[in-house]
Design brief:
4-stranded mixed beta sheet, alpha/beta, 4 helices, 128 residues
Length: 128
């Protein structure tokens, strides 16, 4: 764990934990069982230089039976993208089974020409 204080506009936020990397597995957005609010709160209080998201971000298998996409699910995606804009590196390692998600990750990666996975999102100015 790194310094528990972060500097924001000249002030330190003592309630935020700092890490070099965090690993998040199987969020399952799009399902009723997803705990998006808890994950969003975790992201607010835990900052990292690198966020590794492993497995099913969106649960495509369950969505086939019926999608549940309340606002907190959008909030989670927006929070992850906001962290990337602030300089956090986001590494996505997809699950083996959900082909739609794998195809999206491969197309959004500069390495998609070779279908390379995982997909890495970096802040603007960095190579994607």
């Amino acid at each position: 764990m790194l310094d528990n204080r972060i500097e924001e506009e000249g002030q330190f936020n003592a309630g935020v934990q700092r890490y070099r990397a965090v690993f998040i597995s199987d969020i399952h957005l799009g399902t009723k069982a997803c705990q998006a609010e808890a994950f969003r709160d975790f992201l607010k209080t835990h900052k990292a230089s690198r966020i590794n998201v492993v497995g099913d971000i969106v649960d495509f298998w369950r969505i086939r039976r019926g999608v549940s996409w309340p606002q907190p699910h959008n909030d989670v995606l927006q929070k992850l993208l906001r962290e990337v804009r602030k300089g956090t590196e986001l590494i996505y390692i997809p699950a083996i089974t959900p082909r739609p998600c794998t195809n999206i990750a491969a197309r959004s990666s500069a390495a998609s020409r070779s279908s390379a996975i995982p997909c890495t999102l970096r802040p603007m100015g960095g190579a994607i």
